[in-house]
């Protein structure tokens, strides 16, 4: 077993240390994205849905930021915008202080050397007509970083870095297990030695034991290479294993964020509490299961609040004011922020809005 796949305890993960704006590798501000649902006979949009509604997000050098939310929360859309697979309708994305929001052509190709993506489906992300060795070295060919004679040695090196036998370079994706395919996908993403990795549900298609191995692999790669990671998942148990900070999304907006240990120990938003309660296991050594949070069933329980909190119809602690006021994300100290009127009411204080 290589260093990258050794068993990793939670206590080994570096403690989150707030950084100044100048130390951010990635900074996104005011990201918006809507998708067309229907068009008229002339092709003009007549119905849209907003997937991401004005979020801010930053990632420091060597930091993992976990983006959590249920299906439809907008987390995958955020990841695709950060990776420049989608162009935001509005907002700005900076990488090392450089605006990369709308770069294209050669500039976008050059950006791929710094920023790579690992997708949810390891089989769908690998070309089934090419052997694994060809797949993992393809980025080197595209970016002209290795000659044809060098490729077999580079393939062996990349596979070894993710604890795969170099012999597998001659096999095709369908001959590998799900975990082996995901390792190959990670090897391909690391071929260009990126500084930022966007991992979109990288373990959701795998069994439990393989998930742990992949997460340990990512943690080892991060430590060895000072890699920054945006980890997108619906599962707090997965995010807890890697994340220094956690960002919780609901209906396209950030509703809570903060250092992982603080947010896991004391979630301030009812939605965050519900996600934690629904997780398979936030801590394997928990002596008692976390108390379940009963959410209301939406419109059947309470009418929607067009001008109020988006979570109003499902919230078990909603107040009358929640139907009228849309809470802003506010700083509650130590890098922890939440968008919830109930929190302000409970603590009897008001805060100034803050960015992500």
Radius of gyration: 21 Å
Order of helices and strands: EEEHEEHEHHHEHEHEEHHEEH
The biggest sheet amounts to: 8 strands, mixed
**Number of helical regions:** 10
The residue ranges in which pLDDT falls below 50 over 5 or more consecutive positions are 1-12, 14-21, 281-289, 348-356
Q: What kind of assembly state do the chains in view correspond to? A: single chain
GO molecular function, one term: ATP hydrolysis activity
Pfam families: ABC_tran, oligo_HPY
Keywords: ATP-binding, Nucleotide-binding, Transport
InterPro entries: AAA+_ATPase, ABC_transp_ATP-bind, ABC_transporter-like_ATP-bd, ABC_transporter-like_CS, Oligopep_ABC_C, P-loop_NTPase
Per-chain topology:
Elements: E1 24-39, E2 45-60, E3 64-68, H1 75-82, E4 90-95, E5 98-99, H2 106-111, E6 115-118, H3 132-142, H4 151-161, H5 178-190, E7 196-200, H6 208-225, E8 228-233, H7 236-242, E9 245-250, E10 253-259, H8 260-265, H9 270-278, E11 330-333, E12 336-338, H10 341-347
Helix pairs in contact: 3-4, 3-5, 5-6
Pfam families: ABC_tran (PF00005), oligo_HPY (PF08352)
Keywords: ATP-binding, Nucleotide-binding, Transport
Protein name: Peptide/nickel transport system ATP-binding protein/oligopeptide transport system ATP-binding protein
């Amino acid at each position: 077993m290589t260093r990258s796949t050794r068993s990793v305890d939670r206590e080994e993960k570096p403690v989150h240390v707030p950084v100044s704006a100048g130390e951010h590798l990635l900074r996104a501000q005011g990201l918006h994205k809507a998708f067309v649902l229907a068009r008229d006979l002339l092709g003009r949009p007549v119905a849209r849905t907003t997937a991401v509604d004005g979020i801010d997000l930053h990632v420091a050098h060597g930091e993992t930021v976990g983006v959590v939310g249920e299906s439809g929360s907008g987390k995958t859309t955020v990841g695709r915008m950060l990776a420049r697979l989608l162009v935001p309708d509005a907002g700005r994305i900076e990488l090392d202080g450089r605006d990369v929001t709308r770069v294209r052509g050669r500039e976008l190709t050059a950006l791929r050397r710094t920023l790579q993506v690992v997708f949810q489906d390891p089989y769908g992300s690998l070309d089934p007509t090419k052997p694994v060795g060809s797949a993992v070295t393809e980025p080197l060919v595209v970016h002209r970083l290795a000659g044809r004679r060098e490729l077999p040695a580079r393939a062996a090196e990349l596979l070894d870095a993710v604890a795969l036998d170099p012999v597998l370079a001659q096999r095709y994706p369908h001959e590998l297990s799900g975990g082996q395919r995901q390792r190959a996908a990670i090897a391909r993403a690391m071929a260009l030695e990126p500084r930022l990795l966007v991992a979109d549900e990288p373990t959701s298609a795998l069994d439990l034991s393989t998930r742990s191995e992949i997460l340990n692999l990512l943690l080892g790669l991060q430590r060895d290479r000072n890699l920054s990671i945006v980890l997108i998942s619906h599962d707090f148990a997965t995010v807890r294993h890697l994340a220094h900070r956690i960002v919780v999304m609901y209906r396209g907006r950030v509703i809570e964020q903060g250092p992982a240990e603080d947010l896991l120990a004391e979630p301030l938003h009812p939605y965050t509490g519900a996600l934690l309660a629904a997780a398979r296991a936030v801590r394997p050594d928990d002596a008692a299961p976390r108390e379940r949070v009963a959410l209301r069933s939406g419109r059947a329980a309470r009418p929607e609040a067009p001008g109020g909190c988006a979570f109003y119809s499902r919230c078990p602690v909603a107040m009358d004011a929640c139907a009228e006021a849309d809470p802003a994300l506010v700083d509650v100290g130590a890098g922890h922020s939440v968008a919830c009127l109930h929190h302000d009411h409970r603590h009897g204080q008001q805060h100034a809005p803050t960015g992500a």
